[in-house]
Write a structure and sequence with these properties.
The complex is a heterodimer of chains A (about 280) and B (about 160). With about 280 residues, chain A is an alpha+beta fold. Chain A has ten helices and eleven strands. In chain A, strand 5 and strand 6 form a beta hairpin. In chain A, helix 3 packs across helix 6 and helix 7 crosses helix 10. Chain A is globular. Chain B has one domain: Cytochrome Bc1 Complex, Chain D, domain 2, CATH 1.10.760. In chain B, helix 1 runs antiparallel to helix 2 and helix 3 crosses helix 6. Chain B starts with a helix and ends with a helix. The chains are: A alpha+beta (about 280), B mainly alpha (about 160).
Chain lengths: ~280, ~160
């Protein structure tokens, strides 16, 4: 690890001396968390994604010190959210006298859940994200108040549930009842929104690995969510990130939890099928 | 336009009004078949020094966000999304550069480059970077007519 860090610094110095401070392409590196959980950060793209042959976790597009931070839970600031959610997990809340632990025992019992999200909920007849399943538990089983999409309690809980799936491959379903949601998300992915007329694909399919000013463009994969963003020093949800991206095209954005963002989440998640769950990851 | 011209007549001493009268509004720009714009958008000669400021400022054109320019190496972090602009003033005419900066899609059909002098025809146009819906029918263009002329003047200095 240390060697990679030094190599990264040498690379940076070399690039700066050229003057543009840019190292194109994904970093040639591999991620093992806590010295034991191997993370698939690059693999072959799913057959239904025409625009990509290889898929890369956003981890490959961050600086060496950020990459190293994610390799140890004691260095990953996102794990503070996971720890906070562990406490909430066993706290009784609501009219039914229940905690998460009352039905689900240990959080480890949720291993694999994140790999399927979002998922068509047969009983509800619509596409469900992890946030929606969590709130159904709270309102229908616990008799507790729903959490807001971007409340810290909610983001921390999604971080905890993601963390126990780390190393497992993302594998959202895109066919059957999911198909129309997937199509809607795909349509959005290629729509050039806002006054800057930028689609997701303009940056994250056609230009990943390239720099926009100081920003190294990734493929916009969401296998690492929620992510701890060093820029804002907190955990961020998938929809919050989508909102920021669309806002930055000088567009009227969509709301976290909106049908549009749920469809987009499914489509973007499917572009990362095969990458390991990494949440909570560390990014810029 | 007509109103501005009339005002210009009524107040011949107000120079800026007369200047404004010769400005081409975003919806009135005439692009030729190849996407070039022959006539100055502001009616005033571009200032290359001011153009350099527009090229490098995040709140203005921020051209270096996507394009590398060797002559601007003192400004950090040039992007690599669009082609490097070295020699642009030799490769293109002034009219072609004006057309590309004003609305590059008239020259390169599927260009990723934003249109800097276009006010209509957007999907979910927002109120700048607020994430809220834009008000009214037309957005302010990303750059003014004069800023575009200034950028074109700067680009014309980039000779091979």
């Amino acid at each position: 690890m240390k060697n990679q860090k030094i190599l990264g610094l040498i690379g940076l110095t070399a690039a700066c001396s050229i003057g543009f401070g840019a190292i194109a392409g994904p970093a040639d590196d591999s991620l093992v968390i806590n010295g034991e959980t191997e993370i698939v950060t690059k693999t072959t793209a799913p057959a239904y994604i025409d625009g990509l042959s290889e898929i890369y976790s956003g981890w490959h597009f961050r600086e060496a010190d950020t990459r190293v931070m994610q390799a140890d839970d004691f260095d990953n600031p996102g794990m503070l959210g996971v720890e906070a959610a562990k406490d909430v997990w066993s706290e009784v809340d609501g009219s039914e006298g229940k905690a998460c632990a009352s039905c689900h025992d240990d959080p480890a019992s949720m291993a694999g859940v994140r790999t399927q999200m979002p998922k068509f909920n047969e009983a509800k007849g619509t596409m469900y994200t992890m946030e929606m399943y969590i709130n159904d538990c709270r309102t229908e089983r616990m008799g507790a108040e729903a959490w807001g999409w971007d409340d810290s309690d909610m983001i921390n809980m999604t971080a905890l549930i993601s963390s126990v799936s780390r190393g497992l491959p993302m594998s959202v379903a895109v066919d059957g009842p999911a198909a129309p949601f997937w199509e809607q998300g795909k349509e959005m992915y290629y729509t050039r929104y806002g006054q800057l007329e930028l689609s997701c694909a303009n940056c994250h399919e056609d230009n990943y690995g390239n720099y926009i000013r100081a920003d190294h463009l990734s493929q916009g994969q969401i296998n690492g969510f929620p992510v701890y963003r060093l820029k804002s020093a907190d955990l961020s949800s998938i929809h919050n990130r989508f909102k920021g991206c669309i806002r930055d095209t000088r567009a009227e954005t969509f709301k976290p939890g909106s049908p549009e963002f749920i469809a987009l989440e499914l489509y973007v998640a499917s572009r990362g099928n095969g990458l390991s769950v990494e949440g909570p990851s560390v990014r810029n | 336009m007509k109103r501005a011209a009339l005002l210009g007549l009524a107040l011949p001493l107000v120079l800026s009004t007369a200047v404004y009268a010769s400005e081409v509004a975003p919806l009135d720009v005439s692009y030729d078949d190849a996407g070039a714009v022959a006539v100055s958008l502001s009616g005033v000669t571009g200032d290359a020094v001011a153009g350099k400021e527009v090229m490098t400022s995040r709140g203005l054109g921020n051209c270096v966000a996507c394009h590398a320019v060797t002559a601007l190496a003192d400004v950090p972090f040039h992007g690599e999304i669009g082609p490097p602009l070295d020699g642009a003033g030799s490769r293109w005419s002034e009219a072609e550069l004006r057309g590309i900066v004003a609305n590059s899609k008239m020259t390169f059909e599927d260009s990723m480059m934003p249109s800097f002098y276009k006010t209509k025809g957007y999907i979910r146009p927002g109120d700048a970077f607020t994430g809220k819906a834009a008000e009214g029918d037309e957005l302010p263009p990303l750059l003014t007519a004069q800023q575009i002329e200034d950028v074109v003047a700067y680009l014309m200095t980039l000779k091979e």
